[in-house]
Predict the 3D structure of the following.
Amino acid sequence: MQNDLRKYKIDYSHCPMIKGSGCPVATIILNSSNGSRTIVYHNQGLPDLTLEIFEQLNLEEYSWIHFEGRNTDVVLLVIQYIQSYNNSLNSTSDRMPITISAEFENPSLELMDLLPYVDVAFVSKDFVKNLGFNNMSEVIRNIDQDIKNAIICAWAEEGAIARAPCGAIVQSPAFPPEKVIDTLGAGDTFNAAVIYYLNKSKVEFMRKYKEEAASTSDTNQTEDNVSDNGTAFKRDIEENLGPESLGYDRLKFITETVLRKAIKIGCRIAGAKVGLRGYDNLDVISSDIL
């Protein structure tokens, strides 16, 4: 497993090594005639992540942290820990607040407890069907409208739909390959591509605003009188970028345009992946798309 991670340049140096337990193994049988999958899962006693393990990480090294929706009680504690870190920052810090996302895939109603606490929620087809929704448009227009985060729902061959923190709804078609070869991991590929693009947009957004804030500050220092517009602009930066303003303000980088492009990129890369066996050469394809 470590060799495989190294092959794909995945850093696992911060992953805990648990003595006395084996790695879970999933053997997946693909039916070439109808595309169905049969999963034989064997858990060799590997425990779930704990808050104590997570506290050993240096959060200064992270811009985005993504969770698989499970072990809800512990995940809520970890999210609270991350939010405490975000609250310790200020608008002049070189460090940026950590964006929190989670995948809602396991059809368990208790996962809904996580929804108000994540910045970006990836809700799966199976999960929302368990809630009584029959199509992705119905999901995005009705699921927890009072929560000002980003909701993203992929629906296989129908593409994906998303709701931005401001309430705007965007959609992307699917991009199927000429021949479907391996659908395993297509959902995870979609999530990874969307997170990559959103985080890249976040970094660019923060850099731009920091530069403008510094420029405004320098201008103010050389003038005896600060204009009302300059004061308002500076206040706007502090309110939008300060980690103390959680929720919508902290997610202002996820605009309607950015979110539309993010899910389109996700659909294109996920579509390319199902035309491949495994993930070999997906990095080359992705670089052309990104």
